[in-house]
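Write out this protein's structure.
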Amino acid sequence: MDADALITELEPTVARLLDRHLAGAKEWFPHELVPWSRGRDYPAGDAWDAHEVELGAGVRSALLVNLLTEDNLPYYTNTLMSLYGNTGAWGVWVRRWTAEEGRHSIVLRDYVTVTRALDAVALERARMAQVECGQVPRPSSLLHGLVYVALQELATRVAHYNTGKQLDDPAGREIMKRVAADENRHYLFYRGLADSAFELDPSGMVLAVEHEVRTFEMPGTGIVDFSHHAKAIARAGIYNFEIHHDQILVPVVLRHWNLEALTGLSAEAERARDAVLERIERIARAGQRDAARRAIAA
């Protein structure tokens, strides 16, 4: 099925999921969550002191990557519109999603600025570099895009939530919990859309799953020193191979989409399914090795 036909066939599902999303939405305001009383002026040239807020390297890296990813929102919106279009229920959804993700950028930036959790000068330089770069994952087709965003939104929710758990600050924990809740609702929308796509084109979706599982990366491509931050985030237990396997691939690909039980697949899709299952097993082993290394180092 070609992309235009899929968009048309999926439009009623988008409308239904959008109605569900809006019905369950709870309005919240970034300014009510930020602990403004803890802030003070930033004189020009004021040097940041990392010891003002005692945070581990992994938590700081997670806050930085999470925020810069949200700052890169214009390019994600552009990518979604290139896949789904800007009309009908698809367009309404993309604009609503953009508005909600923009709220995350506002609350995260205000929080780290007020609390001085991050070096504001380094953060702004990193934001400029990230947005000037404009680099984001760009799925090659509608089906690839549905698989990627379903996995990515859940992964983002997990990363936000785990970051909050490591903040020894009620305000910070509440902010990360609120952002994670939004990301979970985005995940449920995309997962529901992917479910319908499996019914329309199971072989095409299996091929998309194989590619997206094989090439999956957390948002952050293009962030200055991203590899360094990703390693710190993994060491801190915020997001790593073990979490990716246990909390993303197993519950979504193996259980919810029940990849092993799909029938009526093309020969190419059958081979792709075998490759996905093998890849997930390899990720499980990598996660176990990393966990053993962390245990020894602890």
